[in-house]
Structures
1.
Amino acid sequence: MKIDLQNITKKYGEDKILEDVNIQVKEGRLLSILGASGAGKTTILKIISGLVRQDEGRVMIDGMDISDCPVEKRNIGYVFQSPLLFPHMTVEENIRFGLEIKKWHGGRAKERIGQLLKLLQIEGLEKRMPSMISGGQQQRVAIARALAPEPEILLMDEPFSSLDPTLRYEMGELIKEIQEKCNLTVVFVTHDRNESLALSHEIAILIDGKIAQMNSPQNIYNKPCSKAVAQFMGSCNFISGKVEGGTFYSNLGEFKAINEQDGEKTLFIRPEQIRIDGEGKEFIIKSCKSMGKEVIYTVGTENVELLVETIGHKIFEIGQHVGLLFPQGNLHFMMNG
Ligand SMILES: Nc1ncnc2c1ncn2[C@@H]1O[C@H](COP(=O)(O)OP(=O)(O)OP(=O)(O)O)[C@@H](O)[C@H]1O
C-alpha cells in the first residue's frame, strides 16, 4: 500500500511540531525518517497510525483519505522503541493477542502464529514468558505481534535503539528480509544515520518539524540540499566560492563546475572522498586522529582547512607537506545559505 502524507501540520498547544510535511512512500518500500530528538518523528508515525490527529493536511493510503478512520480500522502495524510485551503472557499468547482484531481462533490462529515464529526466527520460544527471553528476542516477538493481523503497512519507532550494535545490525537485516518477503510498506524512525543508510530505499530528513530533504540514501549522503542535511549525515567540508562560466573559484583553487549556474556557491565534499597524495607539496598535515579502522587528518594551507579520512594505519606525519586529490565525481555544489 502506498502512503501519501499531504501538507501535514500539527501543534501541541502553541508549539508547532510539524509544518507542512509531505511524505510519499511507495508500496513495498522502506522509508526512514531521520531527525534529532524532538524533531517530530514519532508524531508523524502517530498521525499515520491514527493515534494522533493532524491539525491540517491529509493522510492518504492508496489514494484514499483515511484521516477520519479510527486506529483499529486502519490495519497498520506499529512497533515501539521498547517491546511492550504483556509480562503475564507467554510468547505465543502475546503474538495471539495481535490476532484479536481479526478474530482468528483455533487452527487458523495456530497456523498464523507458526508462520510468524518462523519468519521472526523465534521457534522454540513460544511457551516462555517475556522475562525468560533476551531483549532482541522480545523485540522479535513484538514485531511478530504487530505483523499477526497481516498489515500491509508497518511503522517502526526506533525499534532497535536498546540493542547492542551487532544485534542491531542483525535485526536490520531481518527487517529488510521480512519487508521484501511480505511486500510491506515500512516507515522506520531512527536518529542513527548508519542504520537509515543501510536499511532504506528512501530517507526523509526531518529538521525542526519540516522535511529538509527526501531522497535515496546515496543522494542524501552525497548530494545534500543544505549544510544542515550534510552535517546531519556525517562529517563534511564546505568551501565557499563562486561559479563563473563552468569553473568554481575558491581559496582551495579552481574546479570544473559543469552545468552549474553562475553565482556564489559552496563546494561540499566528504572527508573520505578526498585523497592524500604523498608526492604533493601544497598542503600541510596539521593534526591527525586515529579512530581504529580509519585516520582523520586535518590538512590545510594558510587560507583553508579540510578534514580528510583514510582507511588503515596512519601514514602521514603532522607537519608533512602533501597534495590533495579531489575526484571530480565527488564534487557537489550547493547554494550558499
Ligand atoms: N502529547 C504531547 N503533548 C505535548 N507535546 C508533545 C506531545 N507529544 C510530543 N510532544 C512534543 O512534540 C515534540 C516532538 O515529539 P516527538 O516524540 O514526535 O519527537 P521525536 O522526533 O520522535 O523525538 P525522539 O527522537 O526523542 O523520540 C517534542 O518536543 C515533544 O515534547
2.
Amino acid sequence: MSGSLRPDPSRWRQAASVVLAAGWTRPGTATQPSPPPPAEDFRLLLLQRSGRQGFMPGAHVFPGGVLDAADHSADWLDLFAPHHGPPRFGLGPAPVRCNAFPSLPNVAGDGNADSKWTLPEDVAFRICAVREAFEEAGVLLLRPRTSPPDPASGPGLALEPPPGLAAWRARVRRDPSHFLRLCEHLDCTPNIWALHDWSCWLTPFWRGGTRRFDTAFFLCCLREPPPVYPDLAEVVGFQWSSPSEATESFLSKEIWLAPPQFYEVRRLANFASLSDLQRFCLDRALEGRERWLPITLLTADATLQILPGDELYLEDSDFFENLMSTEKTEEIMKEGKQFHRIVIHSRHLYDIHVTVQSKYKHVYPKTSVLSKSHL
Ligand SMILES: CC(C)(COP(=O)(O)O)[C@@H](O)C(=O)NCCC(=O)NCCSC(=O)CC(=O)O
Ligand SMILES: Nc1ncnc2c1ncn2[C@@H]1O[C@H](COP(=O)(O)O)[C@@H](OP(=O)(O)O)[C@H]1O
Ligand SMILES: [Mg+2]
C-alpha cells in the first residue's frame, strides 16, 4: 500500500468553487397561475463554460477557478484589520482535517505551503472563490469592512455591482491582484464568513487527461439571487436551478454536469429550504471538508467512479493512477453491498449508489438510483 500519489508537481492545480444557493420566491398572479414550484425553495447558480475552454468545455459548473498568488498575498492583512486577522480571521476554530489520504506530493505554484503563506489556506481559498465569482459572473460576495459578520442573521445578500463593473472586471481578469484594489475602493472585504466548507474533489485519473485540480467547494446561502453578468469569455451563459430542476436539465440533455457537480446537486436535493441548508452548514462548521479522489473503474458497459467508503475503494495510489477494467456493471453491483459510487451509463445518465453512512456530519445524495426512463 502506498499513501501518496505519483509525484508530478506540475499536475495538481489548486482551485476553489462556490456553490451559490439563493432563496427563491416566485410570485403568482391571479390571472396567470405559475407552474408548480420545485421541491426546494432555493436555486443554485450554474455557469456554462465556453466551448473553447480546454477543460470541461460547455459544462455547467459552479463559479470557481485556480488559486492565484494574489489570493494569499500579505496585502490582504491591512484590508481585514483591525477587526479580523491571524490566525483565523474570525472564521472560528480550525476544522479538523478529515482525511489524510490521499496526500498530494506537491501542487502547482507554491505548493501546499501554509507555512510559506501569510494568509491561512482557509482564507486564501475563500478569497479565490469570491474573486472567481466576480470574474466569471459579476457577483460580489463582499461585506462592508466596518460591519461584523453575524451568523445568526441568516443568509445575506451579495453587494450591488459598482459603477464601472466591466472595467473593474477586465482589470481583475488581467491581474487578480486588482481584486484587492476593488475591495479597498468599495471599503469591503471578501465575505469569507459566508462561505462554508462543503467538499473537496480531486480530478480522477483519466487516460490522456493532463489537467488535474484539487478543488475546494464552499457553500454560500444568499437571501435572494443577485444579478449575474457572465463574462462571455470563460462563461457564456448561466441558469438558476433548484437541485431537482438541475437534475432534470441534466437528464433531459439541456445541460451537462461533470460527476462532482452532479453529485453535489444530488446531495443538495436533501434540503427543502434555504434556512435548513444554512443551519446545516453552521452545525457542521467544525468538520471541515473531506478531500475525495474518485477511482475510475471501467466495466464492459459503463464507467464507475468509486468514492471513499465503497468496498472497492482501496487506498493504494496504483488505483488512482491507472484505469481498471472489470466485467459488466450488473455483475459487480450484484456481488457488492457497501456502495459509494457513481455509475456513468452514458453522458447524460449517472446513477449514484450509496449504502454507506455519511461521515463528518455531512449528508450523502438523497436519491441513489435515478429513473431508467431517461435511457
Ligand atoms: C476545475 C474547475 C472546473 C475549475 O476550472 P477552471 O480553472 O475554471 O478552468 C473547478 O471549478 C471544478 O469544478 N473542479 C471539480 C473537480 C474536477 O476536476 N472536476 C472534473 C471532473 S472530470 C471527470 O470527472 C471525468 C469526466 O469528464 O467524466
Ligand atoms: N475567452 C476565453 N475563452 C475560453 N477560455 C478562456 C477564455 N478566457 C480565459 N479562458 C480560460 O479560462 C481558464 C481560467 O479559468 P479560471 O480563472 O476560472 O481558473 C484558463 O484556462 P487554462 O487553465 O486552460 O489556461 C483560460 O485560458
Ligand atoms: Mg473557472
